[in-house]
């Protein structure tokens, strides 16, 4: 697009990506807070005396307000108040929830088992309501800035920030807590506060964009698709739409097999495959830290140059340039792996750190698949493939006992976890009109929370049930709790086929490239 055609902030690619980063702070920190307890499960047992069922209860009750309409209410607020107010209010609720959980874990409300458990849960309920509405706000905001541009890629990158938050929260909480739960919770809550400040900065640009768009529509008499208020009849219309119904149910079964698994994955790896949860010595931390920071900074500088290079128009038109760029990226990555090999070896021996590779891997794969969906389409087919990988992953991590196959299982789970969201979320924007997207995402997340509630709690309760009589600290048998998740994979495949069939009839173009719309 030439300068003369750039009419608003959103027509500048630098501006769009900068807004995405400001917005993604909330995604990063809320995902961190959602998932960081997974790395602390063992410690929550030994330090606070929480059983697996109680651990599951904390996670499950995070979803309770959402199951009973909180996300829909948030969606209505979003439609009524707009992105800015909704983001600030629900981001604020997440901060408040995080703070209550952090105070509870520090013993502020009482240091007995019951007070700690109940007040952590109160904080998590508030946090959970904030997290989900913030996600709807983020998706809505990305559509606002990226519609007609690389929408799927932008959604994938935003999700990448979320996954980075999940991965870092899982991997580092034990180290951040220094062997205690409370500092790790305080740190996680502080992150959401910082992210809210980033969102406040975003709102300044959002106001400017709205003013520019209004000026253009006033001048040209263009009538934009108006935001419509939420009506319950919209919900009925949505549910009656077969493609929407299948994709919403797929969202339930697919995520029920992933998010709950991730919360238990570090403990599973420790109990079933003998991974460690040792904290490194102070000297080792300094040595690895300096090595990792040194190597990562060199790689980051290279990466920033690569991005700079990539955004200069027409750079990739040239075959030779493309080849040079790709080989340079590969050499830099090999060098990086070489420098980091000792750290990687220790990383791959630690339960929480190995489990964190699932969301970490999706950071690389989701944008690649997002870009693929933008350029080539095939969204429904990719969801079938993702569901197949899910089945392999859970079988390899439950009934099989080989640690190398388990690594493959984790890898295929990471690929599935990248494929399905990269295909699913942009597909919703094809099925549903833009002014109904808030309602659509809110409905999907509400249903998703029912599945999460059941499996967050169910896995913990089942784990206690099948391991009755085994004292804390002894290896627990995870076979049946994880095998149950294979069932979710089969239902996901079935729903993906139904979606593909419905799309053929309803012609939403789920198998077509996003950029062609
Ligand atoms: N419901 C959201 C946010 C979320 C993250 N963990 C639990 N809830 C969601 O599922 N977003 C899509 C994603 O793939 O993360």
UniProtKB/TrEMBL annotation:
Catalytic activity reported: L-lysyl-L-alpha-amino acid(out) = L-lysyl-L-alpha-amino acid(in); L-aspartyl-L-lysine(out) = L-aspartyl-L-lysine(in); L-lysyl-L-lysine(out) = L-lysyl-L-lysine(in); L-arginyl-glycine(out) = L-arginyl-glycine(in)
Keywords of this entry: Lysosome, Membrane, Transmembrane, Transmembrane helix, Transport
Record-level GO cellular component terms: lysosomal membrane
UniProt topology in membrane: Multi-pass membrane protein
Location of the protein in the cell: Lysosome membrane
Protein family membership: Belongs to the major facilitator superfamily.
PANTHER family, alphabetized: MAJOR FACILITATOR SUPERFAMILY DOMAIN-CONTAINING PROTEIN 1
Quaternary assembly: Homodimer. Interacts with lysosomal protein GLMP (via lumenal domain); the interaction starts while both proteins are still in the endoplasmic reticulum and is required for stabilization of MFSD1 in lysosomes but has no direct effect on its targeting to lysosomes or transporter activity.
Summary of the function given for this chain in its UniProt record: Lysosomal dipeptide uniporter that selectively exports lysine, arginine or histidine-containing dipeptides with a net positive charge from the lysosome lumen into the cytosol. Could play a role in a specific type of protein O-glycosylation indirectly regulating macrophages migration and tissue invasion. Also essential for liver homeostasis.
Protein name (record): Lysosomal dipeptide transporter MFSD1
Taxonomic classification: Bacteria, Pseudomonadati, Bacteroidota, Bacteroidia, Marinilabiliales
């Amino acid at each position: 697009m030439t300068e003369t055609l750039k009419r608003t902030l959103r027509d500048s690619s630098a501006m769009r990506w900068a807004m995405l980063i400001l917005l993604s702070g909330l995604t990063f920190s809320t995902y961190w807070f959602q998932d960081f307890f997974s790395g602390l499960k063992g410690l929550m047992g030994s330090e606070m005396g929480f059983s697996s069922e109680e651990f599951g209860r904390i996670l499950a009750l995070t979803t309770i307000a959402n199951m009973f309409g909180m996300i829909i209410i948030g969606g209505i607020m979003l439609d009524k108040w707009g992105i800015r107010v909704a983001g600030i209010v629900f981001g604020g609720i997440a901060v408040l929830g995080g703070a209550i959980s952090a105070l509870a874990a520090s013993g502020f409300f009482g240091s007995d088992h019951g007070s700690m458990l109940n007040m952590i849960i109160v904080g998590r309920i508030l946090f959970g309501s904030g997290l989900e509405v913030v996600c709807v706000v983020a998706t809505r905001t990305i559509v606002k800035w990226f519609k007609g541009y690389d929408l799927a890629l932008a959604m994938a990158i935003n999700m990448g920030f979320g996954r980075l938050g999940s991965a870092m929260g899982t991997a580092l909480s034990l180290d951040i807590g220094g062997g205690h739960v409370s500092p790790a919770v305080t740190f996680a809550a502080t992150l959401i506060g910082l992210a809210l400040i980033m969102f406040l900065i975003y709102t300044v640009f959002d106001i400017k964009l709205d003013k520019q768009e209004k000026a253009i529509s006033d001048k040209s008499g263009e009538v934009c698709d108006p935001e419509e208020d939420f009506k319950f009849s919209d919900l009925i219309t949505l549910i009656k739409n077969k493609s929407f119904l299948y994709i919403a149910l797929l969202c339930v079964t697919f995520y029920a097999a992933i998010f709950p698994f991730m919360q238990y994955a570090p403990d599973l790896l420790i109990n079933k495959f003998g991974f460690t949860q040792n904290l490194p010595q102070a000297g080792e931390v300094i040595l690895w830290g300096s090595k990792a920071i040194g190597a990562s900074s060199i790689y980051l500088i290279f990466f920033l140059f690569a991005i700079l290079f990539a955004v200069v128009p027409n750079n990739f038109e040239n075959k030779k340039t493309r080849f040079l760029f790709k080989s340079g990226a590969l050499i830099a990555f090999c060098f990086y792996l070489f420098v980091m090999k000792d750290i990687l070896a220790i990383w791959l021996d630690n339960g929480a750190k190995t489990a964190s590779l699932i969301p970490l891997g999706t950071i690389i794969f989701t944008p690649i698949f997002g870009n693929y969906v933008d350029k080539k389409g095939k969204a429904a087919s990719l969801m079938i493939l993702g569901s197949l990988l899910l089945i392999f992953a859970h079988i390899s991590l439950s009934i099989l006992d080989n640690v190398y196959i388990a690594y493959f299982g984790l890898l295929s789970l990471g690929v599935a976890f990248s494929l399905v969201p990269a295909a699913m979320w942009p597909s919703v924007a094809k099925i549903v009109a833009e002014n109904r997207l808030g309602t659509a995402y809110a409905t999907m997340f509400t249903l998703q929370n029912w599945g999460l509630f059941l499996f967050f709690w169910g896995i913990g309760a089942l784990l206690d049930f099948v391991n009755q009589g085994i004292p804390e600290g002894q290896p627990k048998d995870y076979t049946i709790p994880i095998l149950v998740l294979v069932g979710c994979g089969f239902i996901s495949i079935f729903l993906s086929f139904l979606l593909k069939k419905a799309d053929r009839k309803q012609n939403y173009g789920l198998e077509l490239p996003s950029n062609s719309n």
